[in-house]
Amino acid sequence: MDEEKKHSAHEESIGTVPEKKSDSGRNTVSLLLAGLGVAVVVGLIIWYVVGIQSVKALSESKFALTTAQIFRIPVASIEGNKIPYGEYVDNLNAMRKFYDTDTTGLTRPSDAEMSDYVLSRLLINELTKIVAGEYNVSLTQEEINSVVDTRLLPSFESREKADEEISGRYGWNLDQFVQKIVYPAELETKLSNAYLETVRDPNAKEKVKTTAQSVLDRIKGGESFEQLASEFGSDSTKDQGGDLGWFGEGAMVPQFEAAAFALKKGELSSELVETDFGYHILRVDDIRTTKDQTTGENVKEVKARHILFATNENDTAPFADFMNSRLLSSEIRVSKGLRNPFEELTTAPTSTPEVQTVETNEVME
Predict the structure, then answer these.
(1) What is the full DSSP assignment across 20-88?
(2) 125/136 Cα distance (integer angstroms)
(3) CA-to-CA distance for 17 and 53, rounded, in angstroms?
(4) Do 231 and 223 contact (CB within 8 A), yes or no?
(5) Where does 204-310 sit in CATH, by number?
(6) Which pTM was predicted?
(7) Contact between 37 and 47 (Cβ < 8 Å)
(8) CA nearest 141: which of 108, 102, 182?
(9) Does residue 26 carry a pLDDT above 50?
(10) Angstrom distance (rounded) from CA 213 to CA 228
């Protein structure tokens, strides 16, 4: 019996020792892991702080750009929407490359002017996205593809050539150019059309036509064309009684040209002439034939006057005013070290935007 008790006690003593060693091992591992975790956190904090300082110093080093990308460090924000620092530098480099490779003698902007242009464009692009969301405006991939195929690529020999030339001029490939330049421009155009539809008077065009017809009737009744042109004209010719001077075929828009060359000397068009600009009252004062200096062939020219009643269907000024107003009322934050590109707008008498120059990491909050 005593032997059994001794044996049991021995087993218990053997069993308890390893358990104590196991607890000690786990404690050691836990301490090591905790220490490693603290070291990682401290390392990340140091990395972030150093990265922030690099961005504040506007460094374009690989370290600064990588850090800005990983920690999503912005260079500015508008209405809480952030502009990534990397995007700012990328656009800045593209603009520099554009002027570096220019062979036409364009005046190169200063570094500050380039920064202002790039930052202002990025902020406006972001504001356009915000407003587009409010108006339920978006672009499909099919719409973008159509713009590329019908308006961009025809300027190049091929898609490959477009990619090559764009890369040489901006440092972007074709897809990047479409994303960074074409897409924002097209979204702004579509938003403009959507906004103008909400503010246009649906009867405005008919009202303009009615006014134009009444003036045409007055001229037919014997009133002075020149005097009425000065009173009602909506372009610069009004100050010369509507005088357009001499012009030949191909100088005017097709509808206007067809009407002008169908009239005889001294004849007034019996009907209003409609173009994309609006409604015109047209009179041909003289006709002559001259020799084309290039081909030597005889060409017909007319000397005409008109009174333009603009319908303003292509006038985007209301949209520009609307977006400027939104810009003025937007909260804009710019990283310390950069100038706010809209600084001059803060003195506008109508309203003042809430523009703040902040520490870079404050924009993240």
Answers:
(1) HHHHHHHHHHHHHHHHHHHHHHHHHHHHHHHHHHHHHTT--SHHHHHHHHHTT-EEEEETTEEEEHHHH
(2) 16
(3) 54
(4) no
(5) 3.10.50.40
(6) 0.66
(7) no
(8) 182
(9) yes
(10) 12
